[in-house]
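Hey L., structure's done. Input below.
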Amino acid sequence: MSLLKKALAAVVSAAFLVACAAGGGEGGEEGAGDTAKAQFSLPEPTGQYQVGTQEMHLVDQTRQDPWNPDRKREIMINVWYPAKDIERYPRQSWMSAGSEQAVDTLMAAGGIPKGSVDWTAAKTFGHVDAPRQGGKWPVVLYSPGLGGQRAMGTVLVQELASHGYVVTTIDHTFETTVEFPGGRIEKPVANPKDQLGKATEARVGDTRFVLDELGRRGWNLDKVGMFGHSFGGFTTAESMLADDRIDAGINMDGHLFTDLGDVAKRGLDQPFFLYGRQEIAPGKKTVEHSPFTDYDPTWGVFWTHQKGPKRSAVLPHSGHQSFTDMQIILPQLAKPLGLPADRWAGAIGTIDPEESIKEQSTAVLQFFQSSLS
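Output:
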C-alpha cells in the first residue's frame, strides 16, 4: 500500500475503527443477555488546579454549513479550565448518552460486541459549570481525528486544564455524531476521500470561529496553542497558517496532506511539534513516524520549510490511537470482555498505558509551557 493510501486509510477510519479492527477477530455481535456491561475509568489529572468544564452550542451566522448549505454552521464545544468551589458541581460523563449508540456501533467494528460496554459510566474530572479560578490562563484548542468526537482527547485535555490552561475541544459537525441541546442528534454524512477538502475547510473555519467566540465571551487570547490527533493534527497546522492568533501547535501522528493544504510546503513562523508513533510493522520491522524517516514524506517536507522553532519526538512502542483516550480505555476492557490483552496492539501498540499517558502529558505540557510563556 502506498503512503498516501495508508494516510487516507488512517484518516477515513473514523477515528479508531480501522486501527481497532487490526486487532483481529469479528465484531458487531450483540452482548450476551443481561450480563453487566464492562466499564472503564480515566486517570486523575496531576496538576495543582481542580478542573471545570462548560458545554457550549455555537452558531456561526457568517457561514453556511458545507454539508447542509440551507443552514448556518453550528458546532458543540467544551471549555475545560482551572476551577474553584467544585464540590457542588457534578463530574461530566466521558461520553454523552446521545452519542453512546454511535460509539457502540463504531467500536463493534473493532471487535467489541455491541451492548457490552457502558460508554457513559466513566466520569471525567471536569466539574460541570464550576466557577472559574481567577487568572489569565493560556488558551489551547483540541481537534480530534476525522470522524472522532471531542471526548477522545479528554485525558490530555483535563491534564492541561489542571496545570493552568483553558482547553477547548471541538466537535466538527457532520463528520461525527453530535448531540445538541434538547437531545437533538446530528449524524455524520458519508465522508469519502473526495470530501476531505471540504472537511479541511470546515475545520479551519470552525477553529477560527471558536477563537472569535472565546474572545467575545471574555476568555484571554493573549497566548493561544492548539493540538490535534491525526486529521486534527493536520487541522492544527492549517489553522495556524490561516490564523496568526494561534501561537504554537502540536500534530499528533497526523499526515500533512499536500493536496489538501499548503502548510507542509510553506512551513510556519510559530513553534510546532511533530509527535509520531513507533510501531512494530508486519515482519517485525520498527516503523517511526518522524521527519527523519521515509515513512511520511510530508513531515520531512514540513521540517525543511518550517521557519519557526520546531520539535520532533516519537512515542515508543505506540500505535496511531495511542494519542487518544483509547490508549487508556481499551486495555481496561480486555479482561471483562474475555479478550486477549494484546487484542488492540495494532491500534495502541504495546507501550504500558500509564507510561504512555505520562510521556505524552509531559511532552505536551513542556512544549506549551515553553512556547506560550
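Confidence is low (pLDDT under 50) at residues 1-6, 11-34. The two ends are 43 Å apart (CA to CA).

-- N.
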